[in-house]
Amino acid sequence: MKDKKILEEFKKAYPEKFLTPEAVFSHIHAGDRIFIGTGCGEPQYLVAELVNYVNNNPKAFFDAELIHIWTLGVAPYTDEKFQENLEAQSIAVQRITRRYSSPLFLISSARIWSRWI
User: Fold this and answer.
1) Secondary structure of residue 1 in the 3-state scheme
2) Do residues 105 and 90 lie in contact, with contact meaning Cβ atoms separated by under 8 Å?
3) pLDDT tens digit string along 59-77?
4) Which of 24, 88, 94, 101 is paired with 39 by a 20 to 30 Å CA distance?
């Protein structure tokens, strides 16, 4: 509750820094790669908004590759109903998310990063 109040205060103070989920996620296209910060750096609010967006707009994008190196907790994007939209790739995965994500080995992740640079 306190976090929502702080977020609302930031929205009032800096409205130009906040976009609607539609504006943010409209930039994701089929085949795009999405990197999620790892461990404590995971943007949980943004991940929750991504999942809500895909849930409410199931045809918005397909086959986006979601890369998450170290999953510490719940990863809602690994739910079976999102498989057509988000292909989850992870290196270190907790047992709860292992069922719906593919292992991403460090050697292949090095190739991915080199293509981005």
Assistant:
1) coil
2) no
3) 888 888 888 777 666 778 8
4) 24
The C-alpha atoms of residue 89 and residue 98 are separated, in whole angstroms, by 10
CA 95/CA 113 separation, integer angstroms = 26
Do the beta carbons of residue 112 and residue 72 sit within 8 Å? no
Inter-CA distances, 48 with 28, 51, 109, 116, 117, Å: 16, 5, 24, 25, 28
Query: Which strands, in side-by-side order, build the sheet including 102-103?
Result: 33-36, 64-70, 86-92, 102-103
Q: Based on the structure, what is the number of domains in the chain?
A: 1
Q: Which residue segment(s) compose the domain that 58 sits in?
A: 20-116
